[in-house]
TrEMBL record:
The gene is pgl. This is 6-phosphogluconolactonase. It holds the Pfam family Glucosamine_iso. One of its GO terms (molecular function) is 6-phosphogluconolactonase activity. GO terms for biological process: carbohydrate metabolic process; pentose-phosphate shunt. Its EC number is 3.1.1.31. Keywords: Hydrolase. Belongs to the glucosamine/galactosamine-6-phosphate isomerase family. 6-phosphogluconolactonase subfamily. It comes from Vreelandella zhuhanensis.
Amino acid sequence: MNHHQNHVRQQLADQLAEAIAEALKTDLAEQERVLLVISGGSTPVMFFQTLSTKSLPWERVDITLADERWVDEQSSESNARLVREHLVQDKASSARFVPLTSTAATPEQGVADVSDQITFLAWPASAVVLGMGSDGHTASLFPDSRELDLALSSGEPLVAVRTPSQPQPRITLSADRLHQARRHFLHITGEDKRTVLARALAGDDARKLPIRAFFSCPLAIYWAP
Ligand SMILES: O=C1O[C@H](COP(=O)(O)O)[C@@H](O)[C@H](O)[C@H]1O
């Protein structure tokens, strides 16, 4: 990343963190607890770091993930580890983070337990912050997942997914559950993802570019080069 990219991506992260903090404050004025759903991957690190410095009654905020790789939480591939290291820190250290993990050997075996863990959260979420890969996947709704149709159509909160292009099995909130939010944000950077998003907006079907599943709700797009 060059200096200019770093600068504009930090600005983007600051703007998104401000919008999310405002959304949480608005809902906290009316609800005892609120829920924030975030994504993993590499893009959100600056956003997490900035959000963790915001003054909020974080002890009334629950945080969970849109998706997770079925790996040990100590693994560098773990989205939960990323959230603990970069978001549940500083002022946000009193937030309650509910990871999409269990001790089960496979996501298929763990999905019921993880579903129980997220049931009590304050749905609909105040905000869902999605990411997107350069294949058009969002959360773990991958174009080449065997379970993509299920994840796009299921009324269950979570789906275990196996994806040939990905090294690990995963668990993902279903599209239905990800839709259960007051606000949706998409946080992406770089020319590649801009091109993919443009293709998706031009009308390819959701099985090819799963991000399209979120074009049915107001989606605030946060993009920087
Ligand atoms: O695998 C994942 O990828 C997407 C995008 O990640 P990025 O590294 O390109 O930012 C992410 O939104 C998703 O949560 C994650 O599990």
